[in-house]
């Protein structure tokens, strides 16, 4: 493929590993002095870990303290948005790179964006683009991505549309030639063609009635958040944080409230905040903390070494859980973003060897492989479904040989229960793949609104519990419609790529009597 390929395997089939194999081989051949790997921000550290752990390839990441810029290192992994930023753009474009790797290449499908412009202007010798969804909205997405890799392969955009798409843009024409040209640049493997047998995923959602004191605390925080937002629309992220913390733990909430009290000068706000602190002081029983013991005890009696991973979004909650579980005699391990890379490796190894309970923040999302554990607890739930799936992906992945059990915990009549029951279960979140979720969420976010923003707006603008329930039902309907569109696009993808099986007996003829290797 002349050193430029689009790796378009379906989700979960190891495109990152394929690139690692290529980069390792190129290292052996001494053909890569400078390598630039561009990824979405949340995947940069995951790439760094995969390259190090599986191939012994050391790359500096733009999130490392040691990172000094794109002209100071030869092996770099960075978020594409960092690379295109005003601070770094000129430096990135000034270099002649030996290898460019672009993950989630569908993010550059729009030629009007700065991301597209950056890739279009980069100078490189070899390039590998990765995406499980080369087509997200229409077949011109594929044209834009391929044209970055192999300019001229499809001619002009107008020629491409005229020759390969009918006037309604709903069906393809000249598909044989389309596939022949794709074969020059694209490799695509399908999950159905592999021997990979993913184990089953079992979901157990447990909701609990809060104590009267917990219920009153939730009411006070919700009233404060709604009032503060309606009064001045102020500090949306902080208000959103409070609404998440109140269903996680009083300890997490206290930290933010006391910080806000310290910063807040307006008297009415201070009175409300002090009332919340007083209510936190009145809580002597944390319902979810007590109920977590039930789940942990079940695991200890049925699973080797009683291994359980417990996820929380907040360090204060993590500390409370670690102390409580340790007092009950459990072997506990803490994992959070404050640990160094070496410390994280040691923590995971201790957990593997000793068993017990690993209580982790979402720092664990950074590419950790934990197939030796098959029980996971969402102690509190992120509002972003992709983060939930990333948590589950730590244990439910290639190499897991046991069924995976996911426990979700929520307090009744709280935003957490609404998100869980009204949204996540209605869109069948827990049985979907990252790719499916990505397609659904990207359609929502193209409107300029994030999933978390949508949830928060519904929460603060509802006039009553009935209104809130109706709003969440409406959001579930919207997501279902997005899912239907995603399914329709997947059918279209299947039509484009059907029979496209390079390296098999049905491989596309490349025109010179050779089959694709």
Structure description:
By secondary structure, this protein is α/β, with parallel strands linked by helices. It folds into three domains: 4-188, Rossmann fold, CATH 3.40.50.10810; 201-208 and 286-491, P-loop containing nucleotide triphosphate hydrolases (Rossmann fold, 3-Layer(aba) Sandwich), CATH 3.40.50; 212-281, no CATH class. 48% of the residues lie in helices and 13% in strands. The protein has helices at 15-28, 44-55, 80-83, 89-94, 114-121, 140-149, 157-164, 175-182, 212-232, 236-245, 250-263, 267-281, 287-302, 315-327, 341-354, 385-392, 415-424, 434-445, 451-461, 465-497; strands at residues 4-7, 35-39, 60-61, 75-79, 96-102, 123-130, 186-187, 201-208, 308-311, 332-335, 357-360, 375-378, 404-411. Helix 15 links the parallel strand 10 and strand 11 (357-360). Helix 11 (250-263) packs antiparallel against helix 14, helix 16 (385-392) runs antiparallel to helix 18 and helix 18 (434-445) packs across helix 20. It is globular. The relative contact order is 0.10. Residues 501-517 have low confidence and may be disordered.
